Amino acid sequence: MIEAIQVCKTFRGGKGSDDVRAVADVSFRCEPGRVFALLGPNGSGKTTLLRMISTLMRPDAGELRVAGYDCVRESEGVRGSIGFLTGSAGLHEKLSGRETLDFFGKLHGISDDELGARIDDMVSEFDLSDFIDRATGKLSMGQKQRVMIARTLIHDPDVVIFDEATTGLDVLAAKGLMDVIRSCRDAGKTVLFSTHIMGEVALLADDVTVLHKGRQIYSGGLDGLCEGQEGESVEEKFVNLLEMADGGLLSGEGVSC
What we know:
- By secondary structure, the protein is an alpha/beta fold.
- Helix content is 37%, strand content 25%.
- It has one domain (2-87, 158-256): Rossmann fold.
- A seven-stranded mixed sheet has the order 6-7-8-3-9-10-11, sandwiched between helices. The chain has a four-stranded antiparallel sheet with strand order 2-1-4-5, covered by helices on one side.
- A hairpin with a 2-residue loop joins β4 and β5 (69-70).
């Protein structure tokens, strides 16, 4: 489970610049066996929040816990419990896919005997056999994405985080990633994904938090987010929610269902 309680993060401005409150009093819970969407336009604070959850940043205030570990005081436990996938490749181009999986498996303390079997499972599950021994710099974007997914799941984490992971993917590769998200949910993992695309939320999410300019303007189930005027698309409902927040029609705590 992931739990955030009144989490805040402010970036201090330089000389003559204002401070930027990137995340302001955000609270939510991501439960095992469910897909939780962190939805918001670019610059809303999603990536900052995910960096705090993954222990890359410390919150200024509030509490964050992942799989029972405090993200500040027990960061090593958090890192061992999560798999984190972003939309950027982040692969060493001279390493093959197999070498990449071997390296990250060892980082997570998997024994040599177990790691070999685990890599074989990843090769089979994500159909990597045709290019697993090729340098990742020579792979297509879709092939790189499949290696990155395998890298994310090599240690069988209880919590899986996807940060704008469909960025740059074609339709088939994006569908494949969505299938992975559903598979993780069905396996009982806690799944958190961030996106600015309402259509992805409508296809995948059980629970949603909407961020806008660092504030949480909606928290609840997908059904509550999609309620509204008859004939409106889900994208129109999302835009209307943002416009209500900009117009001051939502309270500081946003909308909850």
